[in-house]
Amino acid sequence: xxxxxxxxxxxxxxxxxxxxxxxxxxxxxxxxxxxxxxxxxxxxxxxxxxxxxxxxxxxxxxxxxxxxxxxxxxxxxxxxxxxxxxxxxxxxxxxxxxxxxxxxxxxxxxxxxxxxxxxxxxxxxxxxxxxxxxxxxxxxxxxxxxxxxxxxxxxxxxxxxxxxxxxxxxxxxxxxxxxxxxxxxxxxxxxxxxxxxxxxxxxxxxxxxxxxxxxxxxxxxxxxxxxxxxxxxxxxxxxxxxxxxxxxxxxxxxxxxxxxxxxxxxxxxxxxxxxxxxxxxxxxxxxxxxxxxxxxxxxxxxxxxxxxxxxxxxxxxxxxxxxx
Length: 324
Ligand code: KG4
Ligand code: ZN
Known about the structure:
Elements: E1 2-7, E2 12-19, E3 23-31, H1 33-37, H2 44-63, E4 70-76, H3 80-97, E5 101-105, H4 106-112, E6 124-129, E7 134-141, E8 144-150, H5 156-166, H6 173-181, H7 206-218, H8 224-253, E9 258-261, H9 268-274, E10 278-279, H10 290-302, E11 322-323
Parallel strand pairs: 1-4, 4-5, 6-9, 8-11, 9-10
Antiparallel strand pairs: 1-2, 2-3, 6-7, 7-8
The protein binds 5'-O-[(R)-(carboxyoxy)(hydroxy)phosphoryl]adenosine and zinc ion.
5'-O-[(R)-(carboxyoxy)(hydroxy)phosphoryl]adenosine (KG4) binds near residues 10 and 132.
């Protein structure tokens, strides 16, 4: 079964054709960095306009004469205007092509993305760090996960982006901070590890964010060397927190597989830190992409969770959070 995936939850317009939930036939993604760079952050109004401009072009390039059996669209969470573009496009195609449609949960799709890179059996532990979410879960199936812990304040991606901005880096912050950190000394500063004390699976990123800002203020005229050292030391502290979470998962659940996913998992340094014990999707399936939507969409179709015609988009939705 071939599924057309459509992802427009934020600033990426992405379309993909995926066979049987696993095999990516083709994917096209248009990133809106150039539009938002000027504002050092995503401007929702411009994001929607860019989706309108690009979604039809991507569809024509990707699909052409090819056919598909169902459509999977990101229903939420995300920016409302951006989601509306993808959802109206998907519903219109569904009517015209007479194929069923499913509305996919973006966060669950990030957790599914590993299945596009390798075969991995359920259950497995997940550390998902993105711009909107930082959660640790136990996944028992493509559509089922129980939350073990979350960030109690900022998300990890947000923290990367804010620190990049403080250091005067361009947009998008996360990836540029990683590049910057490559030239820095990771032991130059000792920042607080963004992990809640005890046996918990929770993160806290606001403390490290404040510590970095204070460190920066100490150096009125921040030299290139210092800012690179700050970036590297910050990344090292995040790496230590991730290792701490991995240890806690192993302590509680033994030898189950552990997966690191979401936009922050595109970070090469963090991938290497966790390499021994943790599986990570290919970088293009860590950041927002339509292949993960089509991949998980296959399981929605199989379990007959079709979208109703009057289904709304959702900008915030925490229903994936079933706590254990
Ligand atoms: O999953 P994602 O593409 O979108 C959301 O669902 O939020 O995640 C975006 C986040 C951004 O905060 C971005 O800065 C971060 O992922 N990110 C990175 C890297 N690439 C993207 N953070 C650290 N290192 C990277 N290489
Ligand atoms: Zn995402």
